[in-house]
Amino acid sequence: MTIRSKAAIVREVKSLGYKVGGLLSVGSDAKTAKGVKKGYMTGILYMMPTDQLCPMSIEAGCREACLVSAGRAAFTPGIGEARAERTRLFTENRPLFLEWLCAEIDSLKRKADKNGMIPVVRLNGTSDIDWSN
User: Fold this and answer.
1) What CA–CA distances, in Å, run from 20 to 61, 83, 108, 123?
2) For 50-59, which contacts have Cβ atoms below 8 Å and span 24 or more sequence positions?
3) How far apart are CA 84 and CA 119, in angstroms?
4) What phi, psi does 80 have (nearest 5°)?
5) Residue 107 Cα to chain centre, angstroms
6) Element (H, E) at 110
7) Which residues are 4's β-sheet partners?
8) What is the pLDDT of residue 86?
9) Alpha-carbon 27 to chain mean position
10) Beta-carbon neighbour count of residue 97 at 10 Å?
11) pTM, whole model, 2 decimals?
């Protein structure tokens, strides 16, 4: 299997018309600030919750209280647009999405190692995907 660079993957994503700058948010929110102080570098995947990505949200009672539009997302339209594009890529081109996600996790690991930190990944920032498969 050929392993492509993150840059090559991003070029393909953009050539297909997806407007996604990246998949993992690293150090860009209040959730991870406390972890940085304790030596953790956290990458969080934020997407738009949908019936497909959050199939149990009605039963769990979290659909109405969903945090997808809380925090900076409440007043920064670009955040919701980026989440929607990540979700679109995940739904329409899962192999490409997963290839990019693996490249981003690898990049996070290298950056954390370089800075003497522990890499941490949270894949369900605003979704409820069963990643076990």
Assistant:
1) 30, 8, 17, 16
2) 50/87, 52/91, 53/87, 53/90, 53/127, 53/128, 53/129, 54/127, 54/128, 55/128, 56/128, 57/128
3) 26
4) -65, -40
5) 14
6) helix 94-114
7) none
8) 93
9) 12
10) 22
11) 0.84
Give the SS3 label for residue 87: helix
Q: 19-23, 26-30, 49-53, 58-62: lowest mean pLDDT where?
A: 58-62
pLDDT, average across residues 2-28: 89
As to burial, measured by CB atoms within 10 angstroms (0-12 exposed, 13-18 middle, 19+ buried), residue 51 is exposed
CA 133 → CA 19, 39, 129, distances in Å? 27, 30, 10
Report yes or no: 97 and 90 within 8 Å, Cβ to Cβ.
yes
> Mean per-residue pLDDT for 103-108?
95
- Helix-helix angle 6-15:94-114, to 10 degrees: 140
Per the CB < 8 A criterion, the answer to whether 71 and 29 are in contact is yes
Q: Which residues contact 128 (CB under 8 A, 6 or more apart)?
A: 49, 53, 54, 55, 56, 57, 60
